[in-house]
Amino acid sequence: MVDTDIRPAYVDVAEVCRDWGCSRSKGYAIIKQLSGQMKSENPRLLTMSGKINRIYYEEACMKR
Fold it and tell me: Domain of life here (predicted)?
């Protein structure tokens, strides 16, 4: 069986803005805050500017 709902591993600012109904600058602020939270939980993590790990995003923000 093939999974037809393949999504990227990272959430970008466009998706954050769509989910929250906010501006791009606020979307980047949300990503920066979430990246900081991830980094404080595990200082050895590598984060990417402007993107957030989908699993962390969905667990922290979307309660999925």
Answer: Bacteria
Tell me the C-alpha distance between 9 and 12, whole Å. 10
CA distance 3 to 40: 33
pTM attached to this predicted model: 0.84
Residue 63 binned pLDDT confidence (cut-offs 50, 70, 90): confident
> Using the 8-state DSSP alphabet, how is residue 22 labeled?
-
The SS3 of residue 33 is helix
Segment 10-42, tens digit of pLDDT? 999 999 999 999 999 999 999 999 999 999 999
CB–CB of 19/61 below 8 Å? yes
